[in-house]
Design a protein that fits this description.
By secondary structure, the protein is of the alpha+beta class. 28% of the residues lie in helices and 24% in strands. It contains 9 helices and 15 strands.
């Protein structure tokens, strides 16, 4: 598989059905065809999340990135000759990037929610994370999620994690009166936590584990997960053919042991995380 340097991103232009993907001078009916026939794809990932999607040099690395490489290769029929252009896809712009063709497909700790399913077709999930809480290593006042009442928590742009704390079900979870502190992304959240401008960062345990490992003990994770966060593969709304192909690739990834190997590679040193043993139950391709 040829990994192209990050540069100009190929656009996905809309046909009457709103699904067509452009590759060079040719237009494809869907992303799966573009990968298999055109041998090119634009993949969106995070660039600021250690162990999931973190830019190193000219390309990102992490669990999401490796899953993307595996799935792209499977969609190409096992070929290694697909040119991948990597594009940073922050939580605040993932839906827009898919809709306007900035990216073809997204692997970016992208939790499947009912509201997002109105705008995006999701393959997978390829793994299920769980929301938890991270605090400074010397903080003894916050020992469980409900201790966040009245505390300063981070509100990362485009992320719904804070709602699990502040809102009631069905969109939220704990319905606590916490103070929200805005940030552009979770790397900024962690910086603010380290600078004592926050009391806690709460989001998916896989995201928190990457930051906790990277910072070498400055922070601790409570280890009390309270939601299921299904990480899906984002596609332009209506691209069900690619969705079904993605699900077949994820199934194979678990059957041949690759998913477990990638989890151990990126999260093997993290405490309190349980490695997956089988593919999660997929969402309907719609």
């Amino acid at each position: 598989m040829r990994l192209r340097r990050i540069g100009a991103v190929l656009a996905v232009t809309a046909m009457s059905a709103g699904l067509a993907a452009c590759g060079g001078d040719k237009t494809y009916a869907n992303v799966a065809d573009k990968i298999k026939e055109g041998k090119t794809v634009v993949v969106g990932t995070k660039w600021d999340q250690p162990s999931l999607g973190l830019k190193k040099g000219t390309a990102p690395e992490g669990f999401d990135v490796d899953v993307a490489k595996y799935v792209v290769k499977e969609l190409a029929g096992g070929a290694d000759d697909v040119d991948i252009t990597w594009k940073e896809s922050a939580s605040s712009n993932r839906e827009a990037f898919l809709a306007n063709g900035t990216v073809d497909i997204i692997f970016a700790s992208y939790s499947i929610t009912d509201s997002r399913k109105q705008k995006v077709t999701f393959g997978g999930p390829y793994i299920v994370a769980h929301q938890d809480v991270m605090v400074r290593g010397d903080d003894a006042a916050i020992t469980k999620p409900t201790d966040l009442a009245g505390k300063r928590i981070c509100q990362a742009a485009g992320s719904n994690s804070y709602k699990r704390i502040t809102d009631p079900p069905p969109d939220g979870e704990l319905d606590l009166d916490a103070q929200l502190v805005g940030a552009a992304n979770y790397s900024e959240c962690v910086a603010k936590l380290g600078g004592n401008n926050l009391d806690a960062v709460t989001t998916d345990d896989l995201i928190l584990a990457g930051f906790a490992t990277q910072t070498g003990g400055n922070f601790k994770i409570l280890g009390q997960p309270f939601t299921d966060e299904k990480y899906g593969v984002g596609l332009k709304k209506g691209d069900t053919k690619t969705c079904e192909a993605v699900n077949a690739a994820i199934t194979k990834m678990y059957q041949d042991g690759t998913a477990q190997q990638l989890f151990a590679k990126w999260f093997g040193k993290a405490q309190g995380l349980t490695a997956p043993t089988a593919a999660p139950t997929f969402e309907p391709c719609a």
